[in-house]
């Protein structure tokens, strides 16, 4: 007796892993955060959605855009503050606008009231504020150094993987 051939097997296609990931340069993301760029602007520059950017940051840093932005935007604010002092010499209205809108500054009249002739107290308050700013700057430098170190190890790991393929 001759066997009849059965149905032909259907070839199985390998399961697609989806589109390849678009490259996001993390150094560039940190730099743009320092310039106060929004998640939409940064994501748009890499042609990805803000959610994709947020997920990629969570993969590499363990925190999302908003948490990282709080850390990375501080150098930009400090630069703005320095620029504000220079700008105040020429255009005080613009310096006041920048201070109120970007640096959460107020007129100060509600916060502290100085009597006339209280120059020493004003100088003490300025010195205390300068000290607080320098402490904040040191803390931010430490965080940025940790981020740079993390980026450096990621870059080394990425280059090892690409050279091994």
Record the SSE blueprint:
Layout: H1 26-34, H2 39-45, H3 50-61, H4 65-72, H5 74-88, H6 92-102, H7 119-164
Helix pairs in contact: 2-3, 5-6
Identify the notable features of this structure and list them briefly.
single chain, 165 residues, mainly alpha, 7 helices, 65% helix
Largest β-sheet summary: none
Global Rg:
27 Å
Oligomer: single chain
Uncertain spans: none
The helix/strand order is HHHHHHH
What does this structure look like?
The protein is mostly helical and 165 residues long. The protein has 2 domains: 26-72; 74-108 and 121-154, no CATH class. The chain contains 7 helices and no strands. The longest helix is centred in the last third of the chain and has 46 residues, at 119-164.
Summarize the structure.
This protein is elongated.
